[in-house]
Amino acid sequence: MIFGLFGKKNSNAAIVARQYDLLTAAARRPYLYTDLGVPDTVMGRFEMLSATLILYFRRTRSSGRAGQEIAQEIIDAFFEDVDHSIRELGVGDVSVPKKMKKFASMFYGRLESYAAALDNKDGDELAAALKRNFHPQTEDPALSMDGLASYMLRAEAQLAEVGEDVVETGRIDLADAAA
Question: Where is the Ubiquinol-cytochrome c chaperone domain (predicted)?
Answer without folding.
Answer: 35-171
